[in-house]
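Students often ask why we bother encoding 3D structure as a string. The short answer is that it lets us treat folding as translation between two languages. Here is a chain of 122 residues written in the first language.
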Amino acid sequence: MLRSEIAAFYAGFGQPDLLRRACDDAVLLVPLTDGGRVYTSRVRGIDWVCAFTSEEEYARYQVARGVLADETYRYQRLLGSRLVEWASARSEPTGVSIDCVGNQPVAFPPELSEDNVEGVSA
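And here it is in the second language, the structure alphabet:
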């Protein structure tokens, strides 16, 4: 369902509410640190959780990062709604990026307050 809603957006007729619901209902692969925590990346002052719709998309991300083929890369499967809830509850603004190095990446940026915006570098 999520992939079809993403495809609809790229085709020019996606609906934001349907895309958000499809994300909430999707089971996503989320990279973990060596310590078992959700891996985040900081870009321009905002933390991002990279999530993936498949093992193939996760592998594409790892290859883009220059990973070694013989290493093990941990991930957890999480419901999209739980991931968004976790990101929203963090003290730092945190967005969710889905299939970020794939052919059809989608990002759900965090809501930023005026205080957050001042701390974000352009």
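Translate back mentally: The longest helix spans residues 2-11. Keep this in mind for the problem set.
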